[in-house]
Each structure stands twice: as structure tokens, then as C-alpha cells.
């Protein structure tokens, strides 16, 4: 058992001077009790060392305590000394230090302002990093749009990988929350995001991440961000595609999914092939035949449903524990007021004696309230693993979508090959009926054969990309399964230990009050007997 609370007499002097008239709710009284409890209450059970991987904010509506805790646990290099699985993964990262700090308001370039003299502003953050084994620290200024650019580039370069999702823009929250609070939460979220990228086995050593963390100057925007120019470019190319001048995309372009308006004809073809596959009842030329992958994919979908339910229940538990702490604090406030009344307005000596016990109950209730708040912090710390892995499912969906997109590209090219071959057969048959052959048809056959060779090259390139994504999926599923076992074991051990420790602390406090109150009851009984 943990040490019990000290005798109530040690706190009587402080209890007498509480500013009760100004205390209209529990929050104000709790702050009054802080000096008293910090000096008289037993030490809190030692909290496990913080993992270098701070948790992601929940995708659900968070109670205030959850949001506060999630935003107030930034990562640090010193945290890597912890023995948690996340710390072990951080220790193998190429980066020993990553921090996002010092948010500053900057003005957009004058050219981007539509109204003279009223340039829009944005928030930039100081991103500081150090590679393992290198004592130098690199510091660069990055804005949120730069993080979006980084995420887009990683999505293109690491298809099939479970790329950690970047923080959302949260436009609504930026309008509802206080500006400083919103900036602080975004800063913490961006820092957690960079640490997740650094800990990823493939992304952590990538040039994309290294350039983002170390390259001086502003990050250039990728060409894919300009939707209007993409659509105009696609519209300009469409007639040439329809006329056969751009019938086949270059092999290096085939491996990437069709984007925006860059290749409208390819989009139309892939859409048509998808509809034939899904609705036409025609067996596609290539189907997903990896039964092991299909079984794992279904299990991941089932797992996500269970994880979502557990995540919501964790939110409910956090809210319930918060309400319990607030209610216990309100009870302590009520007994404080009762103590004041019986002390100042007492008509009999017995009322003053009862006031002493009311003080003890009030002190124990406020201590229990603070313990509930501390327990809630620990609950958030451990159960937030549920929220984090639920967020990872977004990356899983994206990786599986990359695989489906690559397969659809292969199917589309194979369908094009079959169509081209059919046209050649028809042209040759028609040409054979003409004495000496039809030169126009023969020339067209020659052109189609050239197109087939180019399409074959593109198909081979697309097949290699599909196989590469399949292998990435396999590696990532294995890694996720291993990390999930480690993370959930740590979560369960930490959650159970914290619940037991804080419950024991609360019991100790109330047992002390019970012993003191029972002693008072025995004395009252003896006085009545005599």
C-alpha cells in the first residue's frame, strides 16, 4: 500500500484561510488547494518515461483534458532513453533530434496579394534537426504548405508503403479556437508527424525528408498543385491523343497514377476499364490472385471496425474520469463550505467537532479529485495508442489504393493491346482482299505495330511497378503487425499499472479518513454511555 495522508491537523491552519466567498466552483477551489496538497499529499506514483513518439490527436471530438494532454507531450531527443517500443524505433532512426518551434507570422509575397497594401499572412515554424552521429543542427523555416508538399512527394515516391498521414488543415478549428492555442496544437502535431516520418524504415533515410529538414530557403511547390493549369494542359493534349499522336504515355509516366488533367484520355480509359471490371460482368485480363493478401486486407478492415469502437470507448472513459474528478472536487467544495458554516455559526461544541471531520473529508475529496485528474492524464497517454493506430489505417487504405491503381493501369494497357491487335487483324483481313494489298491499310498496320511495341514497353514498366507495390505492401503489413503487438503490449501494461497505482492512492486517502472518523464515533459513543 502507498503511504497514507498525514493527520488532518497538519492542514487545519491552511483550511481555515480558504477564500470560500470567492470560490464559486470547483476549478477555483482546486487551485487554492494546490499549495496545500503539493506539500501534504503523498508522492504520486512515478509516471513511465514518455515515449519519443507523441500521440496523434483523435479523429473524434475530444474532451478538454484529452486535447490538453495530447498537445502538451512534445517529443524530445532526451526521451529516446526510454525503454518503450517507440523509443527503440526512434533509436534506430537516422535522426537523433527533430523539433518544431518558434512559430512566427510572416507576410505573403506582394505578387500574391490581390488587394494593394493588404498582403495575406501565414505562420512559419522553425524546424530543427540533427542526424545521428552528427553534432551539427540544421534549422530551416517551413510553413504548413511546405508540409503538404512533403506529404505529396512522399505519396508519389513511396507507393505501397504506409506513409504516415500529415496533420489536417483544420480550417474549422482555426476559426473556433484561440489563435495561440491553435498554433501550439498545430506545432505539436507537425513535430509528431516529422518524427513518425523519421522512424519509418524507408522514409527516414529518404532524400525527400532530408531536403525538407536541411535545405535552406522556401520549398518549391510541386507542379501538381496547380489544378487549373493541369486541366488546361490535359485539355490541350486531348485532341492530340484522340488523333493518335499521343496514343501511349511514356513508360516512366505509366507507373504513376493518372492525375488531374495531365492525361485526360488515360483517365477516361481507366474509368472505362474500371466500369467494365465492376459492372460489365467480364473477367478482367488480370485480377488480384494473392489470397493471402486478400485475407489480410479483410482482416485489416475488420480490425479497423473494432479499433474504431475501442477508440470511441476510450474517449468515453476519459470523459467519465474527467467528470468523476470534477464531481469529487465539487464534493470537496461543498464540505469546505459546510466546515466554514459549522465553525463560524456553531451553537454547540459538537458542531465544531464535526467541523474537524468535515475538513478531513474535504481535504480527501480534493486530493481524490487531483488524483483523478492525474489518472486521466495517464489514461490518455496509454489509450491514445488506439487513436494512433486508427490514424495509421488511413495510410493502409492509401497503400492498398496504390496497389489497386497499379493493377488497373496494367489492366488498361492489356486491354489496349488486345484492342490494337484486333484492329491489326481486321486491317490485314481487309487488305488481303485487295489484289496487291492495300498500301494505306498496310501503312496503318505498320503504325499500329509500332504503337503495340510502345504499349508493350509501358505494360512491362507498369507490371514492374505493380510488383514493387505488392512487395511494399507485404513488407509494411509485416512491420505494422510487429509494431502493433509491441505498442498494444506497452499500452495494456501501462494502463493497468496506472489504474492500479492511482486506485490504491485514492483508497489510502479514504481509509485514513475512515479511521479518523471511526475514532471520533467511538469517542462519541463512550461520552453517551457515561
Question: Can you give a write-up of this model?
Answer:
The protein is mainly α and 530 residues long. Among the domains are: 85-110 and 118-229, PX Domain; 291-519, Substrate Binding Domain Of Dnak, Chain:A, Domain 2, CATH 1.20.1270. Helices cover 66% and strands 6% of the residues. The protein contains 14 helices and three strands. It has helices at 9-16, 26-40, 64-71, 85-91, 144-157, 171-176, 179-199, 207-214, 227-242, 251-254, 264-279, 291-344, 349-432, 439-529; strands spanning 95-107, 121-131, 138-143. A three-stranded antiparallel beta sheet has the order 1-2-3. The radius of gyration is 33 Å and the shape is elongated. Mean pLDDT is 74; it is low at 1-82, 223-247 and 279-283. It holds the Pfam family PX. Residues 103-220 form the PX domain. Residues 286-320 form a coiled coil.
CATH topology of the domain at 291-519: Substrate Binding Domain Of Dnak, Chain:A, Domain 2
Give the averaged pLDDT, no decimals: 74
SSE pattern, N- to C-terminal: HHHHEEEHHHHHHHHHH
Low-confidence stretches: 1-82, 223-247, 279-283
Counted beta strands:
3
Portion of residues in beta strands equals 5-15%
Query: What does the overall shape look like?
Result: elongated
For this structure, the quaternary state is single chain
Helix content: 55-70%
User: How many helices?
Assistant: 14
The span between the termini is 38 Å
CATH superfamily of the domain at 291-519: Arfaptin homology (AH) domain/BAR domain
Please write the CATH class name of the domain at 291-519: Mainly Alpha
Biggest sheet, strands in spatial order? 1-2-3
Structural class: mainly alpha
Amino acid at each position: 500500500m502507498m503511504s497514507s495522508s498525514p493527520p488532518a491537523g497538519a492542514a487545519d491552519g491552511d483550511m481555515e484561510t480558504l477564500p470560500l466567498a470567492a470560490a464559486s466552483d470547483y476549478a477555483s477551489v482546486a487551485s487554492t488547494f494546490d499549495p496545500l496538497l503539493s506539500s501534504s499529499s503523498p508522492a504520486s506514483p512515478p509516471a513511465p518515461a514518455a515515449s519519443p513518439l507523441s500521440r496523434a490527436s483523435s479523429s473524434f471530438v475530444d474532451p478538454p483534458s484529452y486535447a490538453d494532454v495530447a498537445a502538451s507531450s512534445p517529443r524530445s531527443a532526451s526521451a529516446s532513453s526510454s525503454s518503450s517500443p517507440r523509443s527503440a524505433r526512434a533509436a534506430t532512426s537516422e535522426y537523433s533530434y527533430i523539433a518544431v518551434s518558434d512559430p512566427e507570422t510572416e507576410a505573403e509575397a506582394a505578387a500574391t496579394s490581390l488587394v494593394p497594401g493588404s498582403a495575406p499572412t501565414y505562420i512559419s515554424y522553425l524546424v530543427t534537426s540533427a542526424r545521428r552521429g552528427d553534432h551539427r543542427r540544421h534549422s530551416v523555416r517551413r510553413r504548413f504548405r511546405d508540409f503538404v508538399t512533403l506529404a505529396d512527394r512522399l505519396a508519389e515516391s513511396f507507393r505501397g508503403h504506409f506513409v504516415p498521414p500529415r496533420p489536417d488543415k483544420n480550417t474549422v478549428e482555426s476559426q473556433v479556437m484561440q489563435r495561440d492555442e491553435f498554433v501550439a496544437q498545430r506545432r505539436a502535431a507537425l513535430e509528431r508527424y516529422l518524427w513518425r516520418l523519421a522512424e519509418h524504415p524507408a522514409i527516414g533515410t529518404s532524400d525527400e525528408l532530408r531536403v525538407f529538414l536541411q535545405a535552406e530557403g522556401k520549398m518549391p511547390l510541386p507542379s501538381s498543385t496547380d489544378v487549373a493549369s493541369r486541366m488546361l494542359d490535359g485539355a490541350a493534349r486531348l485532341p492530340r491523343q484522340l488523333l493518335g499522336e499521343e496514343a501511349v504515355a511514356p513508360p516512366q509516366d505509366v507507373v504513376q497514377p493518372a492525375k488531374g488533367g495531365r492525361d485526360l484520355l488515360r483517365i477516361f480509359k481507366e474509368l472505362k476499364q474500371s466500369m467494365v471490371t465492376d459492372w460489365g460482368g467480364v473477367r478482367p485480363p488480370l485480377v488480384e490472385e494473392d489470397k493471402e493478401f486478400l485475407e489480410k486486407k479483410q482482416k485489416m478492415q475488420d480490425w479497423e471496425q473494432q479499433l474504431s469502437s475501442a477508440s470511441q470507448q476510450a474517449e468515453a472513459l476519459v470523459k467519465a474520469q474527467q467528470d468523476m474528478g470534477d464531481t469529487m472536487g465539487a464534493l470537496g467544495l461543498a464540505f469546505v463550505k459546510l466546515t466554514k458554516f459549522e465553525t463560524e455559526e456553531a451553537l454547540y461544541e459538537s458542531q465544531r467537532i464535526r467541523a474537524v471531520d468535515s475538513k478531513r473529508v474535504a481535504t480527501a475529496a480534493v486530493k481524490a479529485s487531483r488524483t483523478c485528474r492525474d489518472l486521466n492524464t495517464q489514461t490518455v497517454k496509454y489509450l491514445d495508442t488506439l487513436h494512433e493506430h486508427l490514424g495509421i489505417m488511413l495510410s493502409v487504405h492509401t497503400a492498398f489504393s496504390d496497389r489497386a491503381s497499379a493493377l488497373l493501369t496494367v489492366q488498361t494497357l492489356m486491354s489496349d493491346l488486345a484492342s490494337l491487335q484486333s484492329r491489326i487483324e481486321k486491317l490485314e483481313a481487309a487488305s488481303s482482299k485487295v489484289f496487291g494489298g492495300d498500301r494505306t491499310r498496310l501503312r496503318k498496320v505498320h503504325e499500329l505495330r509500332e504503337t503495340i511495341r510502345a504499349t508493350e514497353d509501358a505494360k512491362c514498366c507498369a507490371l514492374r511497378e505493380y510488383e514493387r507495390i505488392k512487395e511494399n505492401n507485404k513488407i509494411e503489413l509485416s512491420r505494422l503487425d510487429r509494431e502493433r503487438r509491441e505498442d498494444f503490449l506497452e499500452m495494456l501494461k501501462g494502463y493497468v499499472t496506472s489504474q492500479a497505482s492511482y486506485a490504491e492512492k485514492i483508497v489510502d486517502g479514504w481509509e485514513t479518513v475512515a479511521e479518523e472518523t471511526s475514532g471520533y464515533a467511538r469517542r462519541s459513543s463512550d461520552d453517551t454511555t457515561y
